[in-house]
């Protein structure tokens, strides 16, 4: 009987002490992968002599950048931090691929609705996004042309 009483008291005190400790979620801490809010397929408008506008594909574990006449960049080992409303800071490692050497990247991604903007974090921090960095969400591709949502 005494053992049961001690066990009950221990359980109650554990619940009381556990309830007194608060757990807080910190939005500014680093999370692995990419946030659901920025995932999808996007294409920017064609500029200058480009064959097609820049294409961006963002999945849970990979960020793929395809710029016309350049080799595709595959960015892995992603982690992100929310730094504002609809604005995220994403870091990762660029995979070595053809002419691309291994490197680290740090960029800012803005996503609101069907529009996404992407740029270097340091540049975005001081100059904000420019018009050429904006891309629209793509539903599918037909004959190499994007069909926008």
What descriptive keywords fit this protein?
2 helices; signal; Lipocalin; 10 strands; alpha+beta; 43% strand; 17% helix; eight-stranded antiparallel barrel; 149 residues
List the helices and strands and how they pair.
Blueprint: H1 2-20, E1 31-32, E2 40-44, E3 55-58, E4 63-66, E5 73-84, E6 87-94, E7 103-112, E8 115-120, H2 121-127, E9 134-142, E10 145-148
Antiparallel strand pairs: 1-5, 2-3, 2-9, 3-4, 4-5, 5-6, 6-7, 7-8, 8-9, 9-10
Explain this structure to me?
It contains two helices and ten strands. The chain has 149 residues and is α+β, with helices and mostly antiparallel strands. The chain has an eight-stranded antiparallel beta barrel with strand order 2-3-4-5-6-7-8-9. It starts with a helix and ends with a strand. 17% of the residues lie in helices and 43% in strands. A hairpin with a 2-residue loop joins β7 and β8. The mean pLDDT is 80. The longest helix has 19 residues. It has one domain: Lipocalin (Beta Barrel). Keywords: Signal.
| Biggest sheet character | 8 strands, antiparallel, barrel
Name the overall outline.
elongated
Low-confidence stretches: none
In the CATH classification, which architecture applies?
Beta Barrel
| Structural classification | alpha+beta
User: SSE order in H/E notation?
Assistant: HEEEEEEEEHEE
Count the strands? Answer: 10
Signal peptide: 1-27
Keywords: Signal
């Amino acid at each position: 009987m005494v053992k049961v009483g001690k066990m009950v008291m221990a359980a109650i005190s554990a619940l009381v002490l556990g309830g007194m400790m608060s757990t807080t979620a910190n939005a500014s801490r680093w999370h692995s992968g990419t946030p659901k809010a920025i995932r999808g397929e996007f294409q920017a408008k064609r500029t200058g002599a480009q064959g097609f506008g820049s294409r961006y594909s963002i999945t849970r574990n990979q960020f793929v950048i395809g710029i016309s006449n350049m080799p595709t960049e595959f960015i892995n080992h992603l982690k992100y931090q929310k730094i504002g409303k609809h604005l995220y800071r994403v870091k990762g490692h660029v995979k070595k691929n053809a002419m691309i050497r291994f490197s680290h990247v740090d960029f800012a991604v803005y996503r609101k609705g069907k529009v996404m903007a992407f740029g270097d974090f340091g540049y975005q921090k001081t100059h904000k996004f420019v018009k050429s960095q904006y891309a629209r969400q793509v539903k599918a591709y037909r004959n190499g042309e994007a069909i926008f949502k």
